[in-house]
Amino acid sequence: DNEGWQAELRRYLKDVPVDISRDTDIVEYWQDNCLVYPTLGHIALDVLPCQASSVPCERLFSASKQTADDHRSRLGAKMFEQLQVMKFAWHDKITDLAAINSQHVEQVSIEQFQEFLREDCDFEGWDNDDLFVDDLDAEL
């Protein structure tokens, strides 16, 4: 029986299945009915197993804007693809040092830094080249 896809679709729409419910595994349904509706079954089995939204895939594309910036615009398609695959594959294995360091907050006192500022002001003239030359002349 080699009917066209249009006739097969009309036959499917006319023969509304009664055993379909909200809990029906639709992929299993099309596997079971692939012989009854061969064209629709092949289309359904090609499309249904694909996720409508794949979070890892979306993350990969979102992360690509970090790789494809102005500084890396000459990478080329092959190198860009390799970088993206490596970033995705290694993402969970890379230690986030910034997150670790942010857990260790050091408490400092403002008095200590005020003392550093006073010492800097006292030694401000030491960076002046004229003072250095004068010191050398005095030693000679």
Can you characterise this structure?
- There is one protein chain.
- The chain is mostly helical.
- It has eight helices and no strands.
- α4 (55-67) packs across α5.
- The protein is elongated and about 95 Å long.
- The N and C termini lie far apart (113 Å).
The coarse silhouette is elongated
Percentage beta strand: under 5%
pLDDT averaged residue by residue? 75
What is the H/E order? HHHHHHHH
Structural class: mainly alpha
Radius of gyration, in Å, reads 35 Å
Q: Spans of 5+ residues with little confidence (pLDDT < 50)?
A: none
Main beta sheet: none
Number of helices: 8
Q: What is the number of strand segments?
A: 0
Distance between the termini: 113 Å
Helix amount, in percent? 55-70%
Structural descriptors:
140 residues, mainly alpha, 61% helix
Question: In summary, what is this structure?
Answer:
This protein is an all-alpha fold and 140 residues long. The chain has eight helices and no strands.
